[in-house]
């Protein structure tokens, strides 16, 4: 089972190819403004370096959110195009679950946090049975106090750019702050999760983003409409 996975949900963009759970190659570029340009370059280089053709990929995987609205659309549309072209299935992976998977096997609750601005984070909570993630709290938009209060009596690993931004607000005795290299979503983790979720694969046109919150443009339009109704 050869899997091509990508992530463009936040500041770094990454692409990876794994086979039967083993990572073959991965590229990471930290330049959010050029995801649309960099993603195709990374995929092409991976395929070339591994002497693999896109037709040899058995399944595709992509982070579906939460995350940057523009970034998610870039990743999902790219993977849809690949999957449609070669007639292979796609697995959509939660951005938060992929971030938590950087700590697979940990004997602690893993709480990923992505900065959602307005003093909130996109977050969830996971534990692991071996390398298989178990969802303890579903993805949602919360304040740091709301999510940390749910697991204050447990050993917890906090990870993600939301954790780094709000680190001083996170309190507890038995907590670990993940280092920067483990606090970013990686396409290699997306590929590993896709390998575990093979049965959840769908056709390319059934992959949809998980936003959790309306875009700023949508909120402004709603506020404008409400103002016009007054």
Description:
This protein has two domains: 130 residues, 2-Layer Sandwich (Nucleotidyltransferase, domain 5), CATH 3.30.420.40; 87 residues, ATPase, nucleotide binding domain (Nucleotidyltransferase, domain 5), CATH 3.30.420.40. 41% of the residues are buried. The longest helix is centred in the middle third of the chain and has 18 residues. Strand 4, helix 2 and strand 5 form a beta-alpha-beta unit. By secondary structure, it is of the alpha/beta class. It has seven helices and ten strands. The termini are far apart. The protein has a five-stranded mixed beta sheet with strand order 3-2-1-4-5, sandwiched between helices. Strands 8-7-6-9-10 form a five-stranded mixed beta sheet.
The total tally of domains equals: 2
Q: What fold name stands as the CATH topology of the largest domain?
A: Nucleotidyltransferase, domain 5
Q: Which residues sit in consecutive blocks of at least 5 with pLDDT less than 50?
A: 217-223
Task: Please give the oligomerization state of what you see.
Answer: single chain
- Structural class comes to alpha/beta
The termini sit apart by 58 Å
Mean pLDDT: 92
What gross morphology would you assign? globular
The neighbouring-strand order within the major sheet is 3-2-1-4-5
| Main sheet attributes: strand count, strand direction, barrel closure | 5 strands, mixed
What is the CATH architecture descriptor of the largest domain? 2-Layer Sandwich
Gyration radius, to the nearest Å?
A: 18 Å
How helical, in percent, are the residues?
A: 25-40%
Q: Could you state the CATH homologous superfamily of the largest domain?
A: ATPase, nucleotide binding domain
Classify the beta-strand content into a percent band. 25-35%
Name of the CATH class of the largest domain: Alpha Beta
Provide the succession of SSEs: EEEHEHEHEEEHEHEHH
